[in-house]
Specification:
Function: Specifically methylates the N7 position of guanine in position 527 of 16S rRNA.
Largest sheet: 7 strands, mixed
EC number: 2.1.1.170
Subcellular location: Cytoplasm
Protein name: Ribosomal RNA small subunit methyltransferase G
Number of helices: 7
Helix content: 25-40%
Structural class: alpha/beta
CATH topology: Rossmann fold
Number of domains: 1
Strand content: 15-25%
Organism: Qipengyuania soli
Distance between the termini: 43 Å
Number of strands: 7
């Protein structure tokens, strides 16, 4: 259902790159689902930043109905899309935060993920207040993963490492556990 709805909505708003519509399952759905393997089983909230088309947030919410999944998205048309999909997919564990990340009330996230949201250093700075010593960061960064980790402070380079994507041989996923501090 998600795949069909995505194809229809993508005509109205550019949710994903048109060339990726040829391989929605691998490029978006499986790519999102693989992130679960990098997060320890937890009942603490999973936070998806800049959810856009709902990847990985909607997929995570569907596959992990026992945990709350919070999708943060500031663009009105994308928020409407996410709300419709949440309803159609009957994702009672999913909450859409229709606001910029800076405006979202602070809570302790068990997992933080973001796909095509911001460069790693900026992403960490913006979302640091949601992290605790137990927060798992699972950040698909594509081909730039290793470079973005290498550009972090010494603390950041110790906290994060790159895992190979299972769906794209050239892509990496930045993974780490802990509280990020802007002073790090």
């Amino acid at each position: 259902m998600l795949e069909d709805e995505l194809r229809q909505e993508n005509v109205l708003q550019n949710l994903v790159a048109k060339n990726s519509l040829e391989c929605v399952w691998q490029r978006h759905i499986a790519d999102s689902a693989q992130l679960i393997g990098h997060a320890e089983r937890s009942t603490r909230p999973w936070m998806d930043l800049g959810s856009g088309a709902g990847f990985p947030g909607l997929v995570i919410a569907a596959l992990r109905p026992e945990i709350p999944v919070i999708l943060v998205e500031s663009r009105k048309r994308r928020i409407d899309w996410l709300e419709r999909m949440k309803s159609k997919m009957q994702l009672d564990n999913c909450r859409i935060e229709g606001a910029r990340l800076e405006q979202v009330e602070t809570f302790e996230a068990g997992v933080i993920t973001a796909r095509a949201f911001a460069p790693l250093d900026r992403l960490l700075a913006l979302s640091a207040r949601f992290s605790t010593s137990r927060t798992r960061w699972v950040l698909p960064k594509g081909r730039s993963a290793a470079q973005e980790v290498a550009a972090l402070s010494k603390f950041g380079r110790k906290m994060f490492h790159v895992e190979q994507s299972l769906t794209d041989n050239e892509a990496g996923i930045v993974v780490g556990t802990g509280k990020w501090s802007e002073k790090s």
